[in-house]
Amino acid sequence: MKKLQKWGGAAALYQAAAYLAAIVFFLFIANYPSITDPHEKLAFLLENQLGMYGMYTAAYVVFGLALVVLNLALYDRLKTGSPAVMQTAAALGLIWAGTLIASGMVFTMGMKTVLDLYPKDAGQALTIWLTIESVSSGLSSGNGEILGGLWTLLVSLAALRSARLPKALNYLGLAVGFVGLLSAVPPLNDLTAVFGLTQLVWFIGLGITLLQKNSNVFDS
Question: What is the pLDDT of residues 145-166, one digit of tens each?
Answer without folding.
Answer: 899 999 999 999 999 999 999 9
